[in-house]
Design brief:
Shape: elongated
Structural class: mainly alpha
Radius of gyration: 22 Å
Number of helices: 8
Strand content: under 5%
Number of strands: 0
Distance between the termini: 58 Å
């Protein structure tokens, strides 16, 4: 009888790395120096500068671009869910293909289905994150349109509106980032379809690549204050 301890350890490592990375990025002092955190500052700058402009068509066009990009990722998540469901339904065909390979990589049908279900759950999580981010970007667009006129720049109402819009804007960006992070880790999860040892390697690779983009990339350096 095959032992599944390696698979359990690999999945636990995958979940632990994803959780620790997300917490470090979003809830620690170290994460507040990330590229995403630095961009959050400019969301408030954008919202404040918006008060100085009577004509805000360009701002609304940029918001539409953000919404369209988020809608694209949400649609892609649905396609990915469909692909993962098709993979689940084709268990016998997939195992037959793996069985024909020179190296025996054939898992049991039950384990294959568990892997597929895990992938489906990741993509469902991704879809909900992008769908909610899209809704929040819609709300931000409404708040943009509800901005006080430039003549009321220094009023308490204008300041409250800036803070309210900025908080909602940051929440939209945060959920979008979580959706993208789930996509990245889904790519690492695919290593489990080869073997648990490959999952260890692909998970570590995803963490390294995403960490470098947030803390050591050219974009991060460009945003250094």
């Amino acid at each position: 009888m095959r032992s599944y301890w390696a698979d359990i350890a690999a999945v636990a490592f995958f979940a632990l790395e994803w959780t620790v990375y997300a917490i470090t990025l979003e809830h620690t002092a170290y994460g507040r120096d990330s590229l995403s955190a630095r961009m959050h500052i400019y969301r408030e700058v954008w919202v404040r500068n918006l008060l100085n402009r009577e004509a805000r068509m360009v701002d609304m066009q940029i918001m539409a671009s953000l919404q369209n990009g988020t809608a694209f990722f949400a649609s892609t998540s649905l396609i990915a869910i469909g692909g993962a469901l098709a993979l689940l339904r084709s268990t016998n065909d997939a195992l037959a293909v793996l069985g024909a390979l020179p190296i025996d990589l054939t898992p049991s049908p039950a384990l294959w289905e568990v892997k597929c279900v895990g992938l489906i759950l990741i993509f469902i999580y991704t879809f909900f994150k992008f769908a909610w981010a899209y809704r929040l970007f819609n709300y931000v667009a409404i708040l943009f349109a509800a901005k006080p006129p430039a003549g009321q720049l220094d009023t308490p109402e204008a300041e409250d509106h800036v803070l309210r819009t900025t908080r909602l804007f940051e929440a939209a960006g945060r959920h979008f980032n979580r959706g993208q992070r789930a996509f990245f880790f889904a790519l690492g999860y695919l290593g489990w379809f080869v073997s648990p040892w490959v999952l260890f390697a692909t998970t570590a690779a995803v963490v390294i690549v995403t960490w470098r983009r947030q803390f050591a990339s050219n974009a991060w350096q460009a945003m250094e204050s």
